[in-house]
Amino acid sequence: MDKHTIIIVEDDEITALNLKLSLQKHGYEIVAMYDNSEEAKEKIASYRPDVIIIDISLQESSDGIELAKTIRQNYAIPFIYLTSYSDDDIIAEAAKTEPYGYIVKPFDPSSLHATIQMAIFKFEMENKRSEEVGTTKLDQNSVEKLLYAKRESEKPIISFGNGYLLEIVQDEILYNHEKIKLTKKERAILRLLVAKLGHTISFSQAIDYVWKENGATENSIRTLMWRLRSKLPSDIIKNASGIGYYIEK
Questions:
Q1: Distances (CA, A) of 81 to 66, 86, 97
Q2: Residues 164, 158 contacting (CB under 8 angstroms)
Q3: Rg of the chain over CA atoms, in angstroms?
Q4: Spatial CA neighbour of 183 closest among 155, 243, 223
Q5: Which label site among 100, 166, 176, 239 has the fewest CB atoms less than 10 Å from its CB?
Q6: Which of 126-130, 150-154, 221-225 has the lowest mean pLDDT?
Q7: For 89, phi and psi rounded to 5 degrees?
Q8: Nearest to 58, CA basis, from 72, 39, 73
Q9: What is the DSSP string of the chain?
Q10: Taking each helix axis from N to C terminus, what angle separates 184-195 and 203-210, rounded to the nearest 10 degrees?
Q11: Is the pLDDT of residue 195 over 70?
């Protein structure tokens, strides 16, 4: 079996060396090590590693998070944060990049190995699920049919997410019977998620349904989803990392 390849991006020389030695003992191949995000960005495409480990605070800044954003947007490669931070704001910002795990300094070799194995497994399962989700286009007619099939009575209303209601005809979202003010695109993506309740909506399906024209990207969907989540009273929208989003039944 081929060794899993890893790139380490860590600006502390001792930590980087300890990581390398520990990973090699567990059978991983360290293909490159960098102490800054700019050099790492230039070389990722050349090595195409199985996993990238990133110090969350390169050069005592947010460079690690910015590097993760670049990887998320341009490469299908799982990444793991290495951090000594407990700051809620920094962790919240890092979480938006949808990492495949966190390693806390000082790291434990066994936990390090387990985190990497879980990241690889999660990434492989996501790819499998992505193939299953496919790129079936969901147009307005098919979404309307799905919504009406989910009614609990003759009224054009669907309950979801423990307290939420979607009024199909009025195109309004309520929480505890209070209307939530949303933009047209925010209502559209939420409508799509409710129509496919319990199933993942891929980025391509979301782009086709919400934008209906060229120009939108996965990053457009992430930004839209971030705005929508900030307006909802509870966190009902879940990430299918690298694939899309869903709301549990």
A1: 12, 13, 10
A2: no
A3: 21
A4: 223
A5: 176
A6: 126-130
A7: -65, -40
A8: 39
A9: -PPPEEEEE-S-HHHHHHHHHHHHHTT-EEEEEESSHHHHHHHHHHH--SEEEEETTGGGTTHHHHHHHHHHHH----EEEEE----HHHHHHHHTT--S-EEESSPPHHHHHHHHHHHHHHHHHHHHHHHHHTT----HHHHHHHHHHT-SSSSSEEEETTTEEEETTTTEEEETTEE----HHHHHHHHHHHHTTTSPEEHHHHHHHHT-STT--HHHHHHHHHHHHHHSSS--EEEETTTEEEE--
A10: 130
A11: yes
pLDDT tens, position by position, 20-68: 999 999 999 999 999 998 899 888 888 889 999 999 887 666 688 999 9
Cα gap 134→205, rounded to integer Å? 9
pLDDT, tens only, 166-187: 999 899 999 999 999 999 999 9
pLDDT-based confidence at residue 2 (cuts at 50, 70, 90): low
Q: Residue 162's Cα: distance from chain center in Å?
A: 23
Render pLDDT for 125-136 as a digit per residue (tens, 0 to 9): 876 665 555 556
Cα–Cα distance for residue pair 122/140, rounded to 1 Å: 32
- Extract the tokens encoding 247: 């709301």
Query: Cα separation of 167 and 194, whole Å?
Result: 11
Q: Which two tokens stand for residue 83?
A: 């951090």
Q: Which residues pair with 239 in a beta bridge?
A: 245
Torsional sign, CA 21, 26, 28, 29? positive
Per-residue CA distances from 20 to 3, 67, 74, 108, 213 (Å): 14, 20, 25, 13, 46
